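User: Structure please.
Assistant: Input sequence and predicted structure:
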Amino acid sequence: MKPVLQWLGLAALFALIGHFAVILATPYVLMNGAMNKLSAHGRAVNQFVYSPRTTAASRAVVRPSPDLAYAACVYDIAKGPLRVHAAPSRDYMSVSVFQADSDNIFVVNDRQAPTGVDFVLAKAGQATPTGVKVVISPSVKGIILDRRLAPTQDLFAQADQARHGDLCQSIASAPAA
């Protein structure tokens, strides 16, 4: 009887280890899938990509709102910090930064930044310019998401024009603000 209990205990231990491994890995796996999908498998990193108007078939973002226009930047700050700028909006707008495990590490909306959003995204220890807000990312990869109110075709066109003023690029190649 003792060997059976040892095998059951060993099986329970491996099940517990596997359970925790899945729980810890899931956010990274899901976020990596989202980053690959949004960046067309790495071809559009450190630049904003603009989603078309949301329809019932849209699924680039999980359950996207039909009232919002989306722009997403998959970032990689391994080689240096990024300058992030989102043009102001006449209506609601928010910019969120998500790290590699899907945690939201920064968010700002149009009421907090009525003249637009401007910050530098860096990892700890990277040199950053003075005089601009710096957001430190715990991970070198993640997603920056710009959402703008666009419930009608006319408002979508206005939001689309505004979001094309968004910037997500290396400090070395970013224009001075």
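The chain has one domain: 48-173.
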